[in-house]
Amino acid sequence: MSEQILTEKNRVVRHGWIELAGHWTIALSGLLLLLSGMFELPMAARYKITAIPGFGWSGDFIISLYVHYVASVVFIAAAFFHLAYHGLLRDQGLLPRKGDLKASIDVVKSFFGFGEEPPFDKYLPEQRLAYLGTAVIIGVLVLTGLIKTYKNVYAPDLSHAVVFWATTLHNLFFVLFILVFVGHIGAILLKPNRPMVRGIFTGKVRLDYAQHRHPLWLSGIEPPTRPPEKRPEADILATATVSAPPAEVGVDAAGDPAEGTIETAKEK
Predict the structure, then answer these.
(1) Phi, psi angle pair for 135, to nearest 5°
(2) Which CATH number do you get for residue 176?
(3) Does residue 80 fall inside a structural domain?
(4) Which single residue of 32, 132, 169, 217 has CA 20 to 30 Å from 209?
């Protein structure tokens, strides 16, 4: 991660390019999974989706199934990369914490003018809860999807009960995944959350927004170090002249100033 405060630009780096690439890979492959999964049902031709330019394949079950398989490989690979990347960095920012449920209720109430939002860390409490719920949904979809794929490719005579429950759970959690996807888009469009839209595309959010809503997060980011200011050469010379020790006046053995010292001083 590369979190950094850019004071002069009024920006805070919220996500690095690796995190952005992983997020968009999961998002786009997940969207393709949703579409191809629905196209496996007899709906594309019925609702004239096949007439949309570039979606002629949507009415073919086999092609939709292959697209679903390819998208699932990309999705699963990106999901495991996400877990490995944040695991190696020991980043626990998205993991639920004690009190997140109560804090989420307070946030929702504040949207309707009841109370004020508490200060937030990098992620909102409802984001952490949604992260856990989404992880469970994805885990069930991956497990049941692997069972269905194994049946289609290697074991067509797999137990009917196993296939039935795998298919039922896959379809149920598929619907839940759609609801989570829609909820994610809807939440980001709420007025208090709109400044975070910038971070989805650029990885940066406004500094004044973060200071107002995410002070706990900013407190953990080291402030930018400022380079030492360059002083004008004239100031440096003036300082050196003032701080220089006075010239010593020599004396001879009789205690009188040494010959030539007074003249030299006068010349100066």
Answers:
(1) -60, -40
(2) 1.20.950.20
(3) no
(4) 132
